[in-house]
Amino acid sequence: MEAVNLLSSNKYTEKQIGYLFISVLVNSNSDLISLINNGIKNDLASRNPTFMNLALHCIANVGSREMAEAFASQIPSILVAGDTMDSVKQSAALCLLRLNRTSPDLVPMGEWTARVVHLLNDQHLGVVTAAASLITTLAQKSPEDFKTSISLAVARLSRIVTSASIDLQDYTYYFVAAPWLSVKLLRLLQCYPPPEDAALRSRLTECLETILNKAQEPPKSKKVQHSNAKNAVLFEAIALIIHHDSEPTLLVRACNQLGQFLQHRETNLRYLALESMCTLASSEFSHEAVKTHIDTVINALKTERDVSVRQRAVDLLYAMCDRSNAKQIVAEMLSYLENADYSIREEMVLKVAILAEKYAVDYTWYVDTILNLIRIAGDYVSEEVWYRVIQIVINQDDVQGYAAKTVFEALQAPACHENLVKVGGYILGEFGNLIAGDSRSSPLVQFNLLHSKFHLCSVPTRALLLSAYIKFINLFPEVKATIQDVLRSDSQLRNADVELQQRAIEYLRLSCIASTDILATVLEEMPPFPERESSILAKLKKKKGPGNLPDIDDTRWNVNGSAEHSEDTESTNKSPPSLMADLLPTNRPRPASSSPTLLSAGTMGSSHPFTDLLNLNSTPSAGASLLVDVLSDISTPAPITVSEDNFSRFVCKNNGVIYEDQLLQIGLKAEYRQNLGRIYVFYGNKTSTQFLSFSSSVTSSDTLKTQLNVHAKAVDPTVDGGAQLQQVVNIECLSDFTDAPVLDIQFRYGGTLQKIAVKLPVMLNKFFQPTEMTSQDFFQRWKQLGVPQQEVQTIFKAQHPMDTDVTNAKILGFGVALLIGVDPNPANFVGAGVIHTKNTQVGCLLRLEPNTQAQMYRLTLRTSRESVSQRLCDLLSDQF
Amino acid sequence: MIKAILIFNNHGKPRLSKFYEHYNEDTEQQIIRETFHLVSKRDENVCNFLEGGMLIGGSDYKLIYRHYATLYFVFCVDSSESELGILDLIQVFVETLDKCFENVCELDLIFHVDKVHNILAEMVMGGMVLETNMNEIITQVDAQNKMEKSEVTSVLA
């Protein structure tokens, strides 16, 4: 409060202390702000430049929304007014910039923008610098509005660069003409592509050349400040050259210049040179030129004392890597990794793994590299990395034998990293047979080797090893007894960990009771993973932010196969989709126990009952990929097309899965009575992450609104991972209709908004009431509905086998009564029902005549309304 | 944009801290501590740039610092600033302080915090570089001092 009083004082000292206090201590949401604003307003209007400056400073320093609201419209006018003092203009420009950053919506664009651009021509260099900052920011937001600034900036720049440093007032800093302004102008130009106007373009090129030339001149001062300032301009010029990426000669010159800096004794310059070169490496013109410096960079990696410089060197090596030098670079990075700083190890591991995969000429080299990687920096090898090796080994037939041999050898080291045990267990379990011929790696030796590591490993690794053991039983019947002994031991069967215990018991039983055939099928070799790209890259991206990965495609990569979950039996479990569709519970990729999908799939004729009955840690392969997709945390928003894939499946039934993707499963359960219906919609979250801001609503077309009343109850905004949410939708049929309402679902998953639209299977036939009648009645009514418009007939080819029972079930499912013995021809199907709508009731008769020889049907519908006949005919004719 | 300007001594005692973005007090203290931790364990002769700590925004931000005798001057900036430019700005700041205080030392920063803030305010405003010309800055500061004096004497008279 005292400060506010000081603020309003007329004395400079008091006012200044007041402002100082406020800008240091008051944060943006203090309740005094309105009082402060008042003081500022007075000062801004005071025409005393010192007071105005104080006020502007205060606004900029606090920069709150309230202040922006109060002053955003006033400052532009101060900025462009003719009579404003230079220093005030300077402050006003920056103040505006600050407000534009904090609350861009409040800063009005208007005619002042054109005049701001002309500040670049101002006499006072301070004003120009401030204006350049402001314009750069504004130009990033709306490049079109500030296009005129290009020519002014180029002109200004060329005047500074070529001038003999006399007319620059005092802005020469250690013999360099206006370095800050030059930097700002070069930054501004980086907002735009190279100028189209040829004259302008050549002028700019000339400037850039002059700057490059100046770098070669002997320094005018020995002081470090001189070279700093000069190089600040130089680096900015190089950044602009790289940004334009259009003048090969300039690019190569820039590259050479940076090459010189790479060996400069000034650490700062080496650092910046490495950083700029990283961006330079991605330009096609200079990629080759950058590559010539590879030895220097590698040397930097080895000898540089400063970790931040080394980090840049790693980045640059990564960026300059291509097929020709991959082996060298990867080898160097691996050898550096042995004594690299802890802080950058994980990132380096990822980079090595990516490079090794991307530029692998032969996969033996790749396998060697990754195993080395695990040996050297096992702790920093994340799961993605070793999943990826396994995926590649499984997909590349020619490398499997080699991989098995190599991991076998690697495992013989007395102490090896757990990740290596994982890879080893997996690969030997799959491909151990390929090296079993050699007596040094006979099955028993392999098993003993793996088992010697068993006790040192964590639970997940042990579980993986148990799976490897059961695979051994299949691969090598001769070690069966040994392995069964191990599984039978108390430390497995009575292990405190549920997962291990369950695996041990189940595997033991499996090995005892299953015939070799079944065993072979259940424990078949893993099928190739669907070809997907590396998750490692995604991880690196997440770690580093997108800007730091030049040279790599931008496509969002999906994730590779997981190991653990797709471990053993999944290949055999392919239940037909229709079975899945009939089950409402979400198909969660859960290990163990009672997932009904699996059970029913098993009992209903899956050819490999063991797969499911055992409830091993298995999920269908779709499930496995799903899990991994969740890990990657990238989800491309689903296109918002209305999904109606499953729509027609619901014509004759009321329950099932209407929609399913990697994240969400939507199941339905519907009941209808007369003209009313109720649909229970179940949303199953298939991920392990919570969905946020979940909402779902039902929309209908305008016509449909007059025919159908749909009311969806509100739902919780969050759906926990693996959980199911239920929504009730009530429906009232007013009159007959053809369209269907659409269910719109929105939710946030991992930061991205997902939108899904599904056509709700509400069809006219749902409002049928079956009517039983005698043959006589039927034909009497049939004749009554004899007007041509009341009958719709269609002849179509059968899409499914012509099975009488199935057809009967479908007709009943359609909602009509199936009248048996009515038609003189017993092969024909006849049905009758009444459609209930609020306004009317429509009687309906149907007749379906199959022709088994031609595999055709003839369907005839007669109702009292033409539109109803047509719609019902359309719906039903799809079903056979 | 400059996110924060910190000055602390070799023992990590903050002598000046100016944040251009709002943090609560505890976070500010933690940032200072973290920054000190990052900067102080670096040798002389290594480069003057490093990636910022987690609190201040991780690798999107750079810490640019200079070490003068007993004091560290650290600027935390985002990618829109030129590294060498900021390094020069630190130099200008220090030289300006030197001129205003005549051989500036740590004690000057302690006893004349208000003046240091004023000088800084002439150079950096709301996170943006305002003025880089040392003479201009000094003229402004002198003008203020003069006004201050005249007011003080008029009160005394």
UniProtKB/TrEMBL annotation, chain A:
Keyword annotations of the record: Cell membrane, Coated pit, Endocytosis, Membrane, Protein transport, Transport
Region (Disordered): 542-601
Occurrences of domain Clathrin adaptor alpha/beta/gamma-adaptin appendage Ig-like subdomain (ranges): 648-761
Keyword Hydrolase: no
GO cellular component: AP-2 adaptor complex
SUPFAM superfamilies hit by this protein: ARM repeat, Clathrin adaptor appendage domain, Subdomain of clathrin and coatomer appendage domain
Localization per Swiss-Prot or TrEMBL: Cell membrane; Membrane, Coated pit
Listed Pfam families: Adaptin_N (PF01602), Alpha_adaptin_C (PF02296), Alpha_adaptinC2 (PF02883)
GO BP of this protein: clathrin-dependent endocytosis; intracellular protein transport
Ranges annotated as biased composition (Polar residues): 592-601
Highest rank taxon of the organism: Eukaryota
Molecular-function annotations in GO: clathrin adaptor activity
Cross-referenced InterPro entries: Adaptor_Complx_Large_Subunit, AP2_complex_asu, ARM-like, ARM-type_fold, Clathrin/coatomer_adapt-like_N, Clathrin_a-adaptin_app_sub_C, Clathrin_a/b/g-adaptin_app_Ig, Clathrin_app_Ig-like_sf
Membrane topology: Peripheral membrane protein
Reported function: Component of the adaptor protein complex 2 (AP-2). Adaptor protein complexes function in protein transport via transport vesicles in different membrane traffic pathways. Adaptor protein complexes are vesicle coat components and appear to be involved in cargo selection and vesicle formation. AP-2 is involved in clathrin-dependent endocytosis in which cargo proteins are incorporated into vesicles surrounded by clathrin (clathrin-coated vesicles, CCVs) which are destined for fusion with the early endosome.
Family the entry assigns: Belongs to the adaptor complexes large subunit family.
Subunit structure: Adaptor protein complex 2 (AP-2) is a heterotetramer composed of two large adaptins (alpha-type subunit AP2A1 or AP2A2 and beta-type subunit AP2B1), a medium adaptin (mu-type subunit AP2M1) and a small adaptin (sigma-type subunit AP2S1).
Protein name: AP-2 complex subunit alpha
Gene expressing this chain: LOC116043766
TrEMBL record, chain B:
Subcellular location: Cytoplasmic vesicle membrane; Golgi apparatus
Keyword Protein transport belongs to the record: yes
GO biological process, one term: intracellular protein transport
Keywords, alphabetical: Cytoplasmic vesicle, Golgi apparatus, Membrane, Protein transport, Transport
InterPro entries with a match to the protein in the record: AP_complex_ssu, AP_mu_sigma_su, APS3, Clathrin_sm-chain_CS, Longin-like_dom_sf
Annotated AP complex mu/sigma subunit domain residues: 1-147
GO cellular component, one term: AP-3 adaptor complex
Pfam families: Clat_adaptor_s
UniProt xrefs under Gene3D superfamilies: 3.30.450.60
SUPFAM superfamilies named in the record: SNARE-like
UniProt keyword annotation of Membrane present: yes
The family this protein is said to belong to: Belongs to the adaptor complexes small subunit family.
Task performed by this protein: Part of the AP-3 complex, an adaptor-related complex which is not clathrin-associated. The complex is associated with the Golgi region as well as more peripheral structures. It facilitates the budding of vesicles from the Golgi membrane and may be directly involved in trafficking to lysosomes. In concert with the BLOC-1 complex, AP-3 is required to target cargos into vesicles assembled at cell bodies for delivery into neurites and nerve terminals.
Listed name of the protein: AP complex subunit sigma
